[in-house]
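User: quick one - fold this with iron/sulfur cluster bound?
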Amino acid sequence: MNKKEKLLLLSCCAPCSVGVISDLHEKGIDFTVLFYNPNIQPESEYIRRRDENAHVCQKFGVPFKELEYDPETWKCATKGLENEPEKGQRCDMCFYLRLKKACTYAKENGYTKVSSVLGISRWKDFDQVCRAGEKAAKETGIPYDSTNWRKNGGLEKSERLAKEMNLYRQSYCGCKPKK
Ligand code: SF4
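Assistant: Sure. Structure tokens for the protein plus iron/sulfur cluster:
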């Protein structure tokens, strides 16, 4: 990561992002954590994750930006995909929707690239997240940095910090699809 860059890092929650936030902060990278997660249901859960993520950013002195919580947009975008399994087409659309919004916000607000922690969990398909990021990048002209934050001990670092900081750790990804 180049120090001249201005990075927008899309985050889904505090435990997935804490290790990356710590690393980027230590390296002196100019970055903002973006919270755009209309997939999280119900709203009370959204608020809990948002507040925990904002709290982590505050601890590190890193800017945190929340975009509008618009679950209706997410529901519209994933309509007809309710019965898809996790890692299926509903997740393709969910990642793309959030990353397209991130790239658009980056373009309008002077950021030079976008990355995300959406693929850091061992439950996620990292390549699926990257494909969505690359599509959003192509459509907006804002490069997507597909660093695999899970590697080189990144996942373990996030897990360790989440425990040390006693962060709230949810038991499901975000949506509540039909069974
Ligand atoms: S499982 Fe997670 S990534 Fe997949 S659609 Fe639901 S909230 Fe989005």
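One thing worth noting: The chain is about 45% helix and 10% strand.
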